[in-house]
Write a structure and sequence with these properties.
Low-confidence stretches: none
Strand content: 5-15%
Largest sheet: 6 strands, mixed
Structural class: alpha/beta
Distance between the termini: 36 Å
Helix content: 40-55%
CATH class: Alpha Beta
Number of strands: 6
Order of helices and strands: HEEHHEHEHHEEHH
Bound molecules: iron/sulfur cluster
CATH topology: Uracil-DNA Glycosylase, subunit E
Strand order of the largest sheet: 1-3-2-4-6-5
C-alpha cells in the first residue's frame, strides 16, 4: 500500500488519493477472492458525504458493474433512502467490507476480510464521515467487538473511528425477504433508523 496523508487535505486531493487506491485495489491479489472477480467494487456516492454505509460484499450485479448495491437489494435500499429524503449521490459514500465477490455470494471468510481491511480503513480515514452505517451482520462484526445478532443492536449508536457515530442497520437483502410494513416489522424499523440518522446528520 502507498503511504498516504488523510488529514487536512482538500477535496481534490482526497478524490485523487481515492482514485489511486481504487486502481491499486483493482490489481489486488491479496486473497483468493480475486480469482473469481470480474471487477473489484470500490465505492459509490460522495467522498464528502456525512454518512458512510458499509455493506458485506459485492454480489453478481455489483461484480459485473463494479458498483456497490446495484442489484435487487441495492434498489430496495435506494427506495428506502428516497422515501426518507436521503440522497444516495450526495449524502452517502457506500462501500463493502471486501471489494471482490465471494463465490456463490457466501459470507466473506475472516482471512478475506482481514486482507481487505486496509482498503476499508483507508476509505474511512479519508472520508471521515459523521455517521457510519453498518449494513448487516458482516459489517457489524468487522467494525465492532460483538457477537450479538443485528436484531438486538440495530438502531443503537456506538462510538466509531475518528469520532464517527456508528449504527447497525438491517441489510436490504434481509428486507427483501420481509415485506410487512406493520409497526415493529424489519421494514418499519429500517424507516425509523433512517429518520434517526437524518436527525444526527442535520444537527
Ligand atoms: S477481496 Fe480485497 S484483499 Fe481480497 S483480492 Fe479483493 S481487493 Fe484484494
Amino acid at each position: 500500500m502507498i503511504e498516504i496523508k488523510t488529514e487536512n487535505i482538500s477535496f481534490d486531493e482526497k478524490v485523487k488519493i481515492l482514485d489511486q487506491l481504487k486502481e491499486v485495489c483493482s490489481q489486488c491479489t491479496a486473497c483468493k477472492l480475486h480469482e473469481g472477480r470480474n471487477n473489484t467494487v470500490w465505492s459509490d456516492g460522495n467522498p464528502n458525504a456525512k454518512i458512510m454505509l458499509i455493506g458485506e460484499a459485492p454480489g453478481h450485479n455489483e461484480d459485473m458493474r463494479g458498483v456497490p448495491f446495484v442489484g435487487r437489494a441495492g434498489q430496495l435500499l435506494d427506495k428506502f433512502l428516497e422515501e426518507h429524503d436521503i440522497s444516495r449521490k450526495y449524502d452517502l459514500y457506500i462501500c463493502n467490507t471486501v471489494k471482490c465477490r465471494p463465490p456463490e455470494n457466501r459470507v466473506p471468510k475472516p482471512e478475506e476480510k482481514d486482507s481487505c481491511r486496509k482498503y476499508l480503513d483507508t476509505q474511512i480515514s479519508l472520508i471521515r464521515p459523521k455517521v457510519i452505517l453498518l449494513c448487516g451482520s458482516t459489517a457489524v462484526q468487522s467494525m465492532m467487538e460483538t457477537k450479538l445478532p443485528i436484531s438486538k443492536i440495530r438502531g443503537q449508536w456506538f462510538d466509531g473511528p475518528f469520532g464517527a457515530k456508528m449504527m447497525p442497520i438491517f441489510h436490504p437483502s434481509y428486507l427483501l425477504r420481509n415485506h410487512s410494513l406493520e409497526e415493529g416489522s424489519p421494514r418499519w424499523l429500517m424507516g425509523k433508523d433512517l429518520e434517526e440518522i437524518k436527525k444526527v446528520i442535520n444537527k
